[in-house]
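Schema walkthrough. Field components (list of strings):
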Amino acid sequence: MLRLIAQRLGLGLITLWAASILIFVGTEILPGDLASAILQNSATPESLAEMRSELGLDRPAIVRYGEWLGNAARGDLGHSLASKRDVVEELSPRLKNTVFLAAYAAIIAVPLAVALGLMAAIWQGGVYDRLVNFVTLLTISVPEYLVGYILIKYLSVQMGWFPSLANVTPETPTLDRIYLTFLPVMTLVLVVVAHMMRMTRASVLNIMASPYIEMAFLKGLPKWRVVVRHAFPNALAPIINVIALNLAYLIVGVVVVEAVFVYPGLGQLMVDAVSKHDVPVVQACGLVFAAAFILLNMIADILAILSNPRLRHPR
Amino acid sequence: MRLLGHRLTIPALIGLIIIALNVIAALGAPLIAPFDQADVVGDAWGDPDPQHILGLDNLGRDLFSRLIYGARMSIGLSFVITCLSFFIGVVTGFTAAVMRGWVDLGLSRLVDLLLSMPTLIFAFIILSVLGTDLPVLIITIAILDSVKVFRLARALAMNIAAMEYVEVARVRGEGLWWVITKEILPNAMAPLIAEFGLRFSFAFLFIAALSFLGLGVQPPDADWGSMVRDYRDMINLDSLAPLYPAGAIAILTIGVNFVVDWMLSIHSRSHGEGA
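Field assembly_structure (string):
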């Protein structure tokens, strides 16, 4: 089993390396180069050449990639072109905020989705089950900002229960944070829960077709017990996979939700940097997002191995 | 009611009606909209009245007319993107499945590489350098999206390419293009059409999200996503303005998903689900 896990870790590292190449190619080798992007219309051939040598763009790409990767591995992500500040300094408080938001949403969404999915599996074919199907279709179609603005309109503007802007600062105490970020978290939960729930239901129902489930029924066990004790543990691997995929999706959903609630997170930082052509910041944010995405997928793989007794105790 | 020889379900019918209304609005915008999208017809944020049924926007333009013109941009753009991404994805996917060997290996690894990062983040990286002109947006999103089409097309074509009639065509000496267009494509059509709907709604939501973030369609052009962005501050004054374009996005996506669901249930193939 350790070998399998080591393989996954290695694969994760290789994927991260591949992502770093993509980020680098995307920002520095594509035709419209950085210097002309920064100078925009004011570019003259001389100022372009000057900007290129200032940014080091006159050196071969492979050398610049090696330097960038080496520095990034040592925790030096360069300086922002817009604010001239150290990228790591600018990034870390934002990253903390985003992780807080995503983790808060995950803590609510995952248990909720699994419980609701199991209920749908137990009452398969009933009114509740059909309702679940319908709501899932709705939530995969409805964009985050619509959910967010509806919540703002009714819970914040009309009822006045929650603030419409989640403006937290590093000094905000945790309890206030939980309150201030309640609406963005609810938006994320509403967007991801239905999909996770439907997949939980599908995985459990898939297992319900096996002979040992029939045996459990023939023993005279009640349905909820069959679902919870016999089907659920065996459906765990696909469920974990779906949860991880949805959490990876959460990372992307976070970008839009942060914009709706003007929350000072990593997504906002990246969007600002993209519109200002602030490439070092874009590269750094891209690297962090890619790493989070790859990490979640890797954790899912490893948990799936751990949840399978045959892989846990190989002969 | 029946369509293509299959019974229409109620959600599918609702979906088709929603799509038809949207297409009519997009195509006939100048005929349907009471005002031009750029005309200032009153004060900013004027209240709804019989002439301006949804009220006026931040510059005093008729919101309802803007919404109808926005359909043109949103739907037209997503349609072009989806067609392009399908063309790229299907041609490369089929080629990989027919040629096998290093072509398949190379393309598949390239696709794995592109999938190592969330699409939105990758799009940000490219747009940060290339800017947000319409052609850049179209090509970037189409290429990123074609990766998912490639996977489906390759899987479908793998099965079909193993059939005797494809072998017959090859023995007959037909070229790659013939095999792809005359042998494989007609037999992969049904799942591909359902996938087209899925990819359309993906492109549609994606471009709207980019516009909402200010990185998609730029003024003076406007799509539904950028309209949500323009009107968002009004939500704090208890106005519904940003909810109209956002709702329009949701309704069309729901309609497309209803129809896709119906198609998938006919062919009872689960390809592309959740993709």
